[in-house]
Amino acid sequence: MKTINSYLSKSSDSSPLVVFRIAFGILMFISMIRFWLKGWIEELYINPKFHFSYFGFDWVKPFGDFTYILFIVCALSSILVSIGYKYRFSIIIFFLSFTYIELMDKTTYLNHYYLISILSFLMIFLPASSRFSVDSFKSKKSYKLIPKWSIDSIKLLICIVYFYAGLAKINSDWLIEAMPLKIWLTSKYDLPIIGESLVHLDWFHYLMSWGGMIYDLSIPFLLLYSRTRLFAFVMVVFFHLFTVVLFPIGMFPYIMIFSALIFFSSKFHLKIIFFISSFFKNLNFEKYETTKNVYSFQKIKATYFIILFFFIFQILFPLRNLLYDGELFWNERGYRYSWRVMLMEKIGYTTLKIEDNDSGKSFYINNSDFLTPFQEKQMSFQPDFIIEYAHHVGDYYKEKGYENLSVFADSHVALNGRKSQRFIDPNINLYQQKRSLKNYEWVLPFKDEIKGF
Q: Taking each helix axis from N to C terminus, what angle separates 229-246 and 202-224, rounded to the nearest 10 degrees?
């Protein structure tokens, strides 16, 4: 307890958290504008007739054309977070609006969307506007010092992401077969320089696979150690920019690059703050700075409890796949929210058969009548999508007068270059199966073994 109390009483210069707040807000604003300009709001949330939901969040649905307002609220709140205006209110609004956007359709799930949600939740409890913010200027009170754990909590979250991403790569498909990188890289023959000379070579595939695993597992420690920090940051920039060239994964690389800056010393971040303030001649952010007192929380015990529970959850939740039987990459029980980034390539074909139990007649569903091409692709190989889709189609035809019906799936899936296997038991009526957190008894066993975590 003495060690814990000693750590909790330590203070640190607030500049790293300030720079992180500014960069986070700007990146989120760019992300929202990018989503709008590419037409994805209409394509992903307004046009679809049906939206796949997360278990327990069926009530989260798009608002039709009013969905644009949700994105405006999210974008505006990100700017307010960046400048530190009514920070606590702004970061809460951002967290709620962004998380709502993420939950509207499971089809759009990406690891970095989840990262943004939990990071913005964490930032609610951090004094990110205690310095160089509109709030501090208006109150004429700015804190140079904040509790050290405020900055360390963001570092810890980033380390957890990297560590679990690296741990997940310790599997036979990734290290022994270089899958699925071997599939993806050979399709990049049009890239300059490496396209014709490297992407089709086996040793390059293994270099990328092993290099990615070693990078993820080592980079947190290299960033934490001052003597290797600059080298680690160069590696972060190179790795993520190289990823941008190879794979279109949105804002995630840029988020990780800017997040890595928080590991640098306060002197480095002060230079950034002075550089920004140089564009505002009348802005003297040190004028009201309090150097003697450390920023104090009003409800410090409640804050400690929330932060502690938050990190216990972040450490344990990615391990929930250990509670399920079967191959994780096949049934995907516990795959999401566990930082398993780009570990598998699944291609599937799934169509549903409606059978009238009274007449014995049956017919197959045309997926395009209910789903967009992107939704159909995601549904074709993910069990929780298939069961939800089966219930949606069953409800639809029940309303059409088929009071006693069954829904069966004809489904085949290929995983990481293997031959296609039947995925769903064709004899089980999916309309009688409930969505739950239990094992999927209607998913057929994987006819192979992937060794590893």
A: 140
